[in-house]
Specification:
Number of strands: 2
Strand content: under 5%
Order of helices and strands: EEHHHH
Distance between the termini: 34 Å
Number of helices: 4
Number of domains: 1
Shape: globular
Helix content: over 70%
Radius of gyration: 14 Å
């Protein structure tokens, strides 16, 4: 993991961030269970990957500072989601 600027929070490496970001997008798009909030789902996902919300936010800020890096994350996220879809259909 890299440190971003003077932030005390660590930047999540790109491969893990792609998975976390994808899981959050999928959860947000499919969240339909009554009584389950996005906040609860975020906590579950962050725990799954062993990160804090602050590390996630610091990583988002890091990628927001460079549109080309965001584009890379976004492209990899699409590919990752498609991989997950293909696994479910087989």
């Amino acid at each position: 993991m890299l440190l971003y600027g003077c932030s005390k929070y660590k930047i999540i490496n790109e491969d893990n961030f792609v998975k976390i970001y994808s899981d959050l997008i999928i959860a947000q798009d499919t969240l339909s269970q009554p009584g389950v909030s996005l906040t609860q789902v975020k906590k579950i996902i962050f725990k799954k990957y062993g990160i804090s919300e602050e590390n996630y936010k610091a990583t988002v800020d890091y990628y927001n500072s460079d549109p080309k890096k965001w584009e890379s994350v976004f492209d990899k996220s699409i590919a990752y989601v498609n991989t997950l879809k293909n696994r479910k259909s087989h």
